[in-house]
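_Per-residue structure_
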Amino acid sequence: MFGLQEGLDPDFHHGLVIGLNAVIVAVADDEPRVLVIRETSQFGNLNKEAFLPFGPFHPLQHRTLDMGLRAWVEAQTELNLGYVEQLYTFGDKGRDPREEKGGARVISIGYLALVSEAGETGVANTGWNRWYNHFPWEDWRQGKPVILDEIIEPRLKEWIAKAKKPSTQQDRTARMERVFAKDLGTWNDELVLERFELLFEAGLVTEKKNQKKGFETGQPLAFDHRRILATAMGRLRSKIKYRPVVFELMPPTFTLLQLQKLVEALSGKLLHKQNFRRLLDNNGLVEPTGQIETKTGGRPAKTFRFRRDLLAERETLGMKLPTSRK
């Protein structure tokens, strides 16, 4: 088993390091969760926050980037990943604080991984966090999040007013209105990264060095890992609308209510029940198993399974989410 310090220290005093970051997502108790590592001793006093599983790419040890990522995740969490897709390359200057002290420039390739269970990993100092702990303004299932009215919108308006040029004020206002809509009807659930980056620019998140004191807009992650998580959230919210990736997070059999709650958890908004089921019927995404689930907390319900054979028949297969206005 190779650790973070063994992987990051060699040649860190110069040159370039290619890193591999994993956003590992599962859903438990109708809450999306992301796997984080809470042990920070290997980084000295660099940070106190949890971080996403990551490690450097070693060309001699890793035949492919994907294999390198899977090796790091297994070493750090003892998880064997199934579904994995590449997200984005993160290479902003100063994203690792050691760079300011003459350390290497770290360019990281982010990946999104989906697993069907968020159980114990068996590894100390690793665990699952609700992803809405990091982005509380993204969960509209109980209505407009309080943090928007009480903290984010007033602080952003103060930031806009402090701009010296009218053109800058207009630009900031337009960006705020575009990404932080006033109601669910105009809220674009895919703009997770754009919202986080606007808050970062305004100094309203912990990761910003000149952050305003006296409030917290979500639980931070080390380095720029919350930005990587925001990228993954936006990607997954977008992808469930045109590819059936949600079934990578489901058990082999499930009720339609369980499936609806999972999609609601990921999108952060409630769905219209009848329209959602009509959508499933029209797309032929699922088929009945002939079995009944009695442990539903209510009336017994039919169970279903995902029709994986459809993937070979259709290149595009997803769901246009029928949002509930309730």
